């Protein structure tokens, strides 16, 4: 077979000739029987698509609709001829060939985004890739992937960073500086939606935690002057909160480092 992709039936189908030990074609009745085709990657058998059986007549057999769903290099076809009546099975092996991935059918989150502090890009950023309908990774793509917060969460969080990543060496798109900042306190479970070539995929939930400490602020401001005392205390009572860089309260802060 010629190099083909995993979405199509091969244009040039295998044609086999049975020969004797001196490479002369055998056309007698002993060369009539069934030939089975099998695909092989290294030493493992791989399923073929189409009809893997062909009938040998006068020493020749022609396959008509073979294909292979697995993309890869150094693939081979193995053949086994079983003659009608008496006779031993005969085997043969094709030259190595290549099958490339088919057309993009789905977008995959190869690596999920890590949990992170509010508004602080984590070390592990999302990595996206394209698959064909058989699940083969596509390695020859151009274009990019865009990202946004899931529509149902747009009013409770913001996404900062570069929202577009190009496919690197035609294989995967890697984001580098994304971070989520919740706009609603205590909401820490977000999802990202990725789009490329009309295909969409949603990330796993991403946990956002408060911190690190960035500043402190008065949660309850003092009203009036120092003369407004209630039993010698300022009124209302002053509450100081620790904040992270996104303006969120850092819970569990014990005052160290303030």
Largest sheet: 7 strands, mixed
Taken in chain order, the helices and strands follow as EEEEEEEEEEEEEEEEEEEEEEEEEEE
Distance between the termini: 71 Å
Mean pLDDT across all amino acids = 84
Q: In one word, what is the shape?
A: rod-shaped
Query: Number of helical runs?
Result: 0
Low-confidence stretches: none
List the helices and strands and how they pair.
Blueprint: E1 4-5, E2 15-17, E3 33-41, E4 44-46, E5 48-49, E6 53-56, E7 60-62, E8 67-68, E9 72-83, E10 90-93, E11 97-100, E12 106-111, E13 116-117, E14 127-131, E15 144-149, E16 157-160, E17 164-168, E18 172-174, E19 179-182, E20 189-190, E21 192-196, E22 199-202, E23 206-209, E24 215-220, E25 229-230, E26 233-234, E27 239-243
Parallel strand pairs: 1-11, 13-23
Antiparallel strand pairs: 2-7, 3-4, 3-6, 3-9, 5-8, 9-10, 9-11, 12-14, 14-18, 15-17, 15-21, 16-19, 17-18, 20-23, 21-22, 24-27, 25-26
Care to give the gist of this entry?
By secondary structure, this protein is mainly β.
Could you describe the 3D structure shown?
This protein is mainly β and 258 residues long. It is 0% helix and 44% strand. It has strands at 4-5, 15-17, 33-41, 44-46, 48-49, 53-56, 60-62, 67-68, 72-83, 90-93, 97-100, 106-111, 116-117, 127-131, 144-149, 157-160, 164-168, 172-174, 179-182, 189-190, 192-196, 199-202, 206-209, 215-220, 229-230, 233-234, 239-243. The strands form 8 sheets. Strands 1, 3, 4, 6, 9, 10 and 11 form a 7-stranded mixed sheet that branches. Strands 12-14-18-17-15-21-22 form a 7-stranded antiparallel sheet, with no helix packed on it. A 3-stranded mixed sheet has the order 13-23-20, with no helix packed on it.
């Amino acid at each position: 077979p010629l190099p083909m992709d995993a979405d199509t039936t091969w244009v040039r189908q295998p044609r086999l000739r049975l020969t004797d030990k001196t490479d002369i074609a055998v056309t007698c009745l002993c060369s009539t029987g069934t030939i089975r085709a099998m695909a092989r990657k290294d030493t493992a058998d791989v399923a073929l698509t189409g009809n893997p059986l062909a009938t040998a007549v006068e020493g020749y057999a022609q396959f008509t609709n073979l294909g292979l769903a697995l993309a890869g290099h150094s693939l081979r076809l193995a053949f086994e001829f079983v003659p009608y009546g008496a006779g031993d099975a005969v085997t043969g092996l094709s030259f190595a060939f290549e099958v490339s991935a088919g057309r993009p059918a789905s977008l995959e989150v190869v690596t999920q985004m890590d949990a992170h502090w509010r508004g602080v890009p984590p070390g592990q950023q999302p990595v996206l890739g394209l698959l064909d309908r058989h699940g083969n990774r596509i390695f020859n793509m151009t274009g990019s992937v865009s990202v946004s917060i899931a529509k149902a969460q747009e009013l409770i969080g913001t996404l900062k960073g570069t929202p577009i990543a190009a496919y690197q060496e035609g294989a995967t798109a890697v984001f580098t500086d994304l971070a989520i900042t919740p706009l609603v306190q205590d909401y820490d479970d977000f999802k990202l939606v990725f789009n490329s070539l009309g295909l969409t995929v949603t990330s796993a939930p991403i946990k956002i935690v408060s911190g690190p400490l960035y500043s402190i602020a008065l949660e309850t401001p003092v009203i009036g002057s120092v003369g407004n005392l209630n039993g010698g205390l300022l009124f209302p009572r002053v509450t100081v909160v620790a904040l992270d860089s996104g303006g969120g309260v850092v819970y569990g802060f014990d005052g160290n480092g303030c």
